[in-house]
Design goal:
By secondary structure, the chain is mainly beta. It is built from 2 helices and 7 strands; from the N terminus they run ααβββββββ. It is elongated.
């Protein structure tokens, strides 16, 4: 039996066969657009419960004024911009990266940012998926007729 591996998702090709999934394809395209080519800075995504998530980003060496977290059009954008005016030390070895970065995460619909805090060089952004009343399961009353 021959195995087939899919390396890329051809959304226009899929749209020919899927009716009514336009919004889902738009979300997939938006998510694919936020993929970062770099591994800097390293990060973790933690699922704390069914509705609470945490994103941890290693920001050792960054000052409070050099970090920025914002939510724009459903994307969580985390920036670190080092202060270029500080005089550089003469390093014999520099293993701790302190370069500027932008990390972008596409958030699903109804995901809210609850807060951000830095502790021990780790920036933690807490997210919560708020399920609207219209999407929650409902019990339907059954009426019996005689």
């Amino acid at each position: 039996m021959k195995q087939v591996y899919v390396n890329s998702l051809d959304i226009p090709q899929l749209q020919r066969f899927a009716v009514g999934f336009d919004r889902m394809f738009d979300e997939l395209a938006r998510t694919a657009g936020t993929l970062n080519a770099t591994n800097y800075p390293p990060y973790n995504i933690i699922k704390e419960s069914e509705t609470v998530y945490k994103i941890e980003v290693a920001v050792a060496g960054f000052e409070e004024s050099e970090l920025d977290v914002e939510l724009v059009n459903g994307e969580l954008i985390i920036r670190g911009e080092t202060d270029k005016t500080v005089t550089e030390a003469q390093y014999l070895h520099q293993g701790i990266a302190g370069r500027d970065f932008v990390r972008t995460f596409a958030l699903a619909e109804n995901v809210e940012v609850k807060g951000a805090a830095v502790k021990n060089g780790i920036l933690t952004v807490t997210l919560e998926h708020i399920i609207p009343e219209s999407a929650k399961p409902k019990k339907i009353a059954i009426t019996f007729q005689k």
